[in-house]
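As a representative case, we now present a protein record of this kind.
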Amino acid sequence: MNVTIETIAAYCEAEAQIGIPGSEVRRIIIDHRDQEKHDALFVAFKGRRFDGHQFIPELISAGVHHFIVTDAKWAEEYRGQANFIVVPDARKALQLIAERHRKLFSLPVVAISGSNGKTIVKEWLSTLLEDRYDICRSPKSYNSQIGVPLSVLKLNQNHSLGIFEVGISQPGEMDALREIVQPTIGLFTNLGDAHEMNFESPHQKFDEKWKLFDHCDVVIGCADHSWTRFMSEAQRKKTLLWSLEGNGADIQMKLSHDNGSVLSLENVEVKLPFRDKASIENAAHCLALMHHLNVMEPSDLQRLSSLRPVAMRMELKEGVYGAQIIDDSYNSDLGSLKASLDYLSGQNETERWIILSDLSENKADRELYEEIGKMLRHSNVTKVIGIGAQIECFKEEFAPIEVDTFADTNAFWNSFDVKSVAGKTILVKGSRKFKLENLVKRLQARQHETVLEIDLHKMGQNLSYYKQRLSPKTKLMVMVKAFAYGSGSYEVAQFLQTQKVDYLTVAYADEGMHLRQKGISLPIMVMSPSKVAYETMLQNRLEPEIFSLAGLQSFLEVARSFSLFDQQFPIHLKVDTGMHRLGFGLEDFEEALQLIIANNTVAVASIFSHLSASDVAIQDGFTQQQVSVFQTFYERAVKVLGYAPDRHILNSTGALRFPEYEFEMVRIGIGLYGFSGSEHTRYLHALGTLKSYIVQIRNVPAGESVGYNREGVSESDRTIATVAIGYADGLDRRLSHGKWSFKWQGIDCPVVGSICMDMTMIDVSNTGASEGDEVIVFQSAEDVLNMSKELGTIPYEILTKIPERVRRVYLQE
């Protein structure tokens, strides 16, 4: 966009307070950390736990001239220093701007809605159609009341097709989004149970979602889905329905699994690289839209055969020689480059490199690479490794950044000293044809084929779920002990630091010291500090949990002798209210308080206790009793100390079931990772997907055994796959002999025989599996809960038993 501030004000139906006349708005930002501040308009959103207005002074200092605010005092305070538009509702203002911007363009626009699959279908359509159209698409999963207008504002005169995903979570939201997107083609993926608690019925949810398509020329969907019964006669007339089951549809497709998955339409056959129902359905949506657009040449259809089973996202991986690798090698447009660079900028202060290939679907012109150069400089990139002829031609646009260019990926690798990446953060970004994923594999620190994928976006959603149910003033202490419940302590801590939680908690001092060495600056409480580690804790600003007189006396002694310490050191007092594991009793607590006030070396940062049965409804009376005892401890402490430390007694489940006791702080543990001992689990997201790969497949005749002790015998012939995961990777041996099944493209493959130390055999007789294929051990909360039930344990144990030798990959949108 390129408009005056007065025009923006007219879009918002407001007046502009002009402090810097003559300047134009080229982009709109909502995050003060956005690197592209030049000619930007900042929309100051205000929520329960944040206020964008507080960043106005910082942004003005950084050169931002334009602001939309809801608090007029900021416009008055900075009158003459910037341009301000004061509005009653910042979100509505952003939507009005996007609506007016959309009206400037006459082009086909595809709007995708539904409960699941929106992002995957959007990404696949962009891949399938990128040679036919200049596409503007939603970045990441921008499908919300704020994400949709931000997506549409990216439209410019060069685009010939828009593809936007649109989601709602409650009634009344779709009307505004429809006017923003103004779609000409609709695509309805499905109607699932997401956000079902906010709708009276599935029919009501369908009606609300369908509002998006009110003015579309055609709406594509699946005739095999039950939502079709909700359609009115008028709605049916504008649909283009496809079917795999022979239902009354406009497009009849056929699916066969004789040689993989083959999707047939009229005289066309497409071999798909997956067999699971969801992926096939998403591919059929894409094929139906391609058919409607008459994009059916062999070269177009060939792209369907090379689709990836899942939409690729940024992946943070541990690199060789202490490097960090941000793998975003599957997207190559300018918008996703900006998102990747924003993520790169959010990492701790290390030297930042980028391995960047030509952006092949963009026109190779100087203006494009001038824009890329600005983005790289804003992100403080120190070195560019450019691959391709375009970057070689325009590399001077990246100055003064150091640039090395190579004709192709192999030329780079053959001349590269891999030790030079030591300690750096490296973004890998580029076009598919350069196969940068091969570089990523070579730069990874661990080559173990078994991987635990951690979805940081889902972690953020879980954190938001808790924040929404707590007072804005309530602090959040988050557990990252036990390798962050198996998820990786540093990577999780780094993410939580960007989310501005108040405290981190580890079990032992060396865990906290590791986080400090890696650059984590948040306050860290140590739950099980040993006396020999007290000095280390003081040196690393780690705060001990004190639960006994002996522990307090030892810590006071070390603190008094610590010559570098010249102020009171924060400690956290744990009291026993009925758990009877650790904590002061009332008599010892009184003595501890007297010791503390007699010494000026420590200050009590918090007093806390642990609920023993917060997830057991029948024990709620005991929980209430614990809280009562806790209050007795606390009131005595305040009286003796003369000040009021923070209180916290609620854990993950307690924070959801007993919000009336949130006090000044709550502790979030397993809830962050997607589990709660309450009905709230259904609204949380499991973060981890444990997957491995088939290393060999063999045919085993009837009567033959599989594995140790000549077990795993069957009366029928079988196809057995050996997978690179065993009990040394955290896969419990008690899951042997069919007690657990891996999934190959959605098909259950039972474990055969005994799980070995490094390998497991599974039955793939009913699949089209090949050597090298991926298999899933677990990928949902239901999977982990079922596994823990089978083993007679809890999800905590399943997650924390996955050793560090299993490679962690961190996904971020």
Remarks:
- The chain has 27 helices and 38 strands.
